[in-house]
Every structure is written in C-alpha cells, then in structure tokens.
C-alpha cells in the first residue's frame, strides 16, 4: 500500500500570509494526487485534483504542484475562511490513502 | 444540484451491526462509483471501501474486510454500507463520497456512529 505523509502537521498563520503544505508519497504516483479542505464538523471538500487542477469554484489563491512523490499545496493571501485542515490523497492505486492532515490555524 | 444525502446518527453496542444509507441526486447513479470514508474523533480520513454504481463490484480496506459490505439498490438509486461486529474503534463519522476518476468530488454530510456499551 502507498503511504502518504504531510508536513507540517500544523502551522499558525495570519490573514494575508502565503502558506505551503507538502505531501509525500511512499512511491511514484505520477500526478494522481488530490487535495481536500475540511472545516470542523463539515465534510471534506475537493480543492485540487491531478496535482494541480483547481476545482470549479475554488479560489485562485489555491494552487497545487508536483509529480512523482513530492507535492505542494500553496495558499497565497490567506483568507479567514481558509483556516482549516488540509489533506492530500493518492488515487494511483487502491487502497486510496490520505495523508494525516495539516491544520492551519490563526497565529 | 449534485448531492449525497446520508442517513442519521446511530448509537450501537459492541458486537452490533449498522447500515448507513447514501442517496445521491443530480447525476446518473450508474455513471459513478461510491466510496466510503470514515473519520474517528479528532483523527484523519480513512478509506473504507468502494462500490461501482454500474456493476456493483466492490473493494474493501483490509482492516474492515470481512465485517463490511457495500451494496447499491439501483431501483432507488441508493448506496448502503453495512458494518458488522462493531467495536469501539469503529466510532466516528462515516462519509459516502462520489468517486470521479481518482478523486472524491462530492461528499455526503456524514453519519455519526457511536459504539458504546
């Protein structure tokens, strides 16, 4: 099975900051990497698929990059509604697996 | 509007079974598979299994295999997850989610399952 790791596990940031979250896969997953945002008490929401494809309705301050085993989610100009937990997920092979999450909270 | 609506919260004793329903709307049911993902309190996301909306083929996570069964009813366009022999570590929120390609693009609202004696 493919293991996913994320760093950092949590970070504190301020509105307007640029935030970068890293996701690493235990083997080459090409670009089968998706990012989700989850707010407390809510279901996750898909932000980015195929490593860098922004979902419809997702603000352009979110971007994704990477291929192979190393991937990045970047949020530029952090907004109040962006404080949440972010998960990466590999779709290369079953079982699809998630990273442990990165919690972004207020500095 | 594409959405998945799940059944309500459940409280069960260890050893019991649950069945959670998931009713999609706004798209052709047989065009997509449904996956189930669970989240223990304060923890991350764990994939439980997948069922094809077209064929009914299934895949299950190793740690629940033998205790979980995913089914669909194409007459009512509803997906179901049955989990048997419940344990305390099965407690958490269970989500159904539509699988589009390799991404979970639409999620249900979640069903809280509490296993407690």
Task: Kindly describe this structure.
The complex is a heterodimer of chains A (107) and B (117). With 107 residues, chain A is mostly beta strands. Chain A is built from no helices and 11 strands. The model of chain A has no long low-confidence stretch (mean pLDDT 97). With 117 residues, chain B is mainly beta. In chain B, strands 2, 4, 5, 6, 9, 10 and 11 form a 7-stranded mixed β-sheet that branches. In chain B, β5 and β6 form a beta hairpin.
Characteristics:
heterodimer, A: 107 residues, mainly beta, seven-stranded mixed sheet, 11 strands, 50% strand, B: 117 residues, four-stranded antiparallel sheet
Structural class of chain B: mainly beta
Query: Which sequence of SSEs, written as H and E, runs from N to C of chain A?
Result: EEEEEEEEEEE
Sequence stretches where pLDDT stays below 50 over 5 or more residues of chain A: none
Helix-strand pattern of chain B, N to C?
EEEEEEEEEEE
Oligomeric grouping of the chains: heterodimer
DSSP helix count of chain A? 0
Q: What is the terminal separation of chain A in angstroms?
A: 36 Å
DSSP helix fraction of chain B: under 10%
The percentage of residues in β strands of chain B lies in: over 45%
Alpha-beta content class of chain A: mainly beta
Q: What coarse outline of chain B follows from CA principal-axis ratios?
A: globular
Beta fraction of the residues of chain A? Answer: over 45%
Mean pLDDT of chain A: 97
If helices are DSSP runs of H or I spanning 4 or more residues, what is the number of helices of chain B?
A: 0
Largest interface, chains and sizes: A-B, 23 and 20 residues
Report the uncertain regions of chain B.
none
Short description, anyone?
The complex is a heterodimer of chains A (107) and B (117). Chain A has 107 residues and is mainly beta. Chain A is 0% helix and 50% strand.
